Amino acid sequence: MSKRDHNRFLSTSFYIELRDAASRVSLLFAALLIGLLVFPSSLLRGQTFVNGSIVGVVSDNSGAVVPQVSMTLTNLGTNATKTTATDASGFYQFLDLPPGDYSVEAKKAGFSPYIRKPVTVEVNAGIRIDITLSLGAVTQEVTVTASTPLLAPESSSLGEVVTSRPTNELPLNGRNPLALAELVTGVVPEQGAGTTEVGKNPFTTGNFEIEGAM
């Protein structure tokens, strides 16, 4: 093979490799675009993990469940409302709630209206509020002002909300935000946890033990 033929062969091979690489990139981009078009709802649902919920059962003084109770949820910060009704078992639910303070109102003919506020929904919190309606006129309103229950039996997960004050005011060694994990109960820092990443193994900066698990 002459030198010219050899150079022509190398050029052709290089062109084929570039063409194949461009084809692979194009296929990857097309697959990604199709995925975004076909599965947008699942991606959006993945962004709602910070929201909470309020559920419960409505019953009367005898303990019997009350169906078809008109339920209204009001965000005390924005005045935005959601409505629903209890089902045949007296169950109601308000899902996908942004963190904030709410009021829960229950109304049904023959019973006194019931209002509970404020109900504080924290990040990813599931709150259960069971309601007991009393027989009476619609002009006799029952208003309950109480703190939000600490137990959330609708979920087996454990969590803790850290307010903005400690995250804003506490100094960070090495400016590593992972050090804020130490504010949560049950988190034990291990060697290198929360320190600066400069000149170190970056994985050690997140070396925490949480409830006995690494």
What is this structure's SSE topology?
Layout: H1 3-38, H2 40-45, E1 52-60, E2 70-75, E3 81-85, E4 91-97, E5 100-107, E6 114-121, E7 126-128, E8 131-133, E9 142-144, H3 164-169, E10 187-189, E11 208-210
Parallel strand pairs: 1-7, 1-8, 6-9
Antiparallel strand pairs: 1-4, 2-3, 2-5, 5-6, 10-11
Low-confidence stretches: 41-48
What string gives the helices and strands in order? HHEEEEEEEEEHEE
Residue share in helix: 10-25%
How many DSSP helices?
3
Largest sheet: 5 strands, mixed
What structural class do helix, strand and pairing data support?
alpha/beta
In the sheet with the most strands, the strands line up as: 3-2-5-6-9
End-to-end CA span: 63 Å
* Mean pLDDT rating: 74
Number of strands: 11
Shape: elongated
Rounded to an integer in angstroms, the radius of gyration calculated over CA atoms is 29 Å
What amount of the residues lies in strands?
Answer: 25-35%
Plain-language structure description:
With 214 residues, the chain is α/β, with parallel strands linked by helices. Helices cover 22% and strands 27% of the residues. The protein has three helices and eleven strands. It has a five-stranded mixed sheet with strand order 3-2-5-6-9, with no helix packed on it. A hairpin with a 6-residue loop joins strand 5 and strand 6. About 4% of the residues have low confidence.
